[in-house]
């Protein structure tokens, strides 16, 4: 099966995706890591993240692979380990820009589909169920309040060593939400056949069990 998890920034998509992949023995693919890899490549090559033609060419010619188990995923860009590089603030900002560019998204979608050829995949992102895998057997749309998403992302940033305030993280999330929903190329929307889960008041164990119930139900259909 292919399990698609979409939703806004900070909703807990990657946490859920990793947990499901581990429980099911599936491959976990973080689509955001691929966009971040493209963004970091553009920055390191001196290419503006908003230069659609140039960034799309970089994405087309780049070799991007994900290796390791879900909890220890390594991102290789043209053979170099960029796992830490793509999580830096400049790469995060740039990725939110390149992800709005239609031609860049088209290149990344092809890479994501190629990574998933063997099946047995859990993939999270913002357009997985609507664009990357519109025929995915299971589509989940994970949502949560802005307050909860802000707190989760703030904790993640602090754990990575970034000195940032809660207010700053909230502003970043709200700006990212606006860009994701307003972009012309596959905006962030819930697929018609996706099941929405509000994770605002769910801990990870309850969230995983809810998702597994949905998956098992689809397996029986």
Describe it for me?
This protein has 221 residues and is of the alpha/beta class. It has two domains: 1-26 and 120-221, Rossmann fold, CATH 3.40.50; 32-118, Rossmann fold, CATH 3.40.50.300. The chain is built from nine helices and eight strands. It has helices at residues 13-24, 31-44, 52-61, 89-98, 102-115, 128-132, 146-159, 166-182, 204-220, and strands at 2-6, 27-30, 64-67, 74-77, 80-81, 121-125, 138-143, 195-198. The strands form two sheets. It has a five-stranded parallel β-sheet with strand order 2-6-1-7-8. A three-stranded antiparallel β-sheet has the order 3-4-5, with helices on one face. Strand 4 (74-77) and strand 5 (80-81) form a beta hairpin. Helix 3 packs parallel to helix 5 (102-115). The model has no long low-confidence stretch (mean pLDDT 92).
In short:
The chain has 221 residues and is an alpha/beta fold. The protein has 9 helices and 8 strands.
Defining key terms:
221 residues, alpha/beta, Rossmann fold, 9 helices, 8 strands
């Amino acid at each position: 099966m292919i399990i698609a998890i979409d939703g806004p920034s900070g909703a807990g998509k990657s946490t859920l995706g990793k947990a499901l992949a581990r429980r099911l023995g599936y491959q976990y693919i973080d689509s955001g890591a691929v966009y971040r890899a493209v963004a970091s490549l553009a920055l390191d090559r001196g290419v503006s993240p908003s230069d659609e033609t140039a960034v799309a060419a970089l994405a087309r010619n780049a070799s991007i692979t994900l290796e390791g188990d879900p909890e220890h995923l390594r991102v290789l860009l043209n053979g170099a380990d960029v796992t830490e590089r793509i999580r830096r603030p400049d790469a995060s900002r740039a990725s939110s820009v390149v992800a709005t560019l239609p031609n860049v998204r088209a290149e990344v979608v092809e890479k994501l589909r190629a990574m998933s050829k063997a099946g047995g995949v859990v993939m999270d992102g913002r357009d997985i169920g609507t664009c990357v895998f519109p025929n995915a057997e299971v589509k989940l749309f994970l949502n949560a309040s802005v307050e909860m998403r802000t707190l989760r992302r703030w904790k993640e940033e602090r754990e990575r060593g970034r000195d940032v305030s809660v207010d700053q993280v909230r502003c970043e999330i709200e700006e990212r939400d606006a860009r994701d929903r307003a972009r012309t190329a596959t905006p962030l929307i819930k697929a018609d056949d996706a099941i929405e889960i509000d994770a605002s008041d769910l801990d990870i164990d309850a969230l995983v069990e809810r998702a597994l119930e949905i998956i098992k139900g689809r397996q029986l259909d």
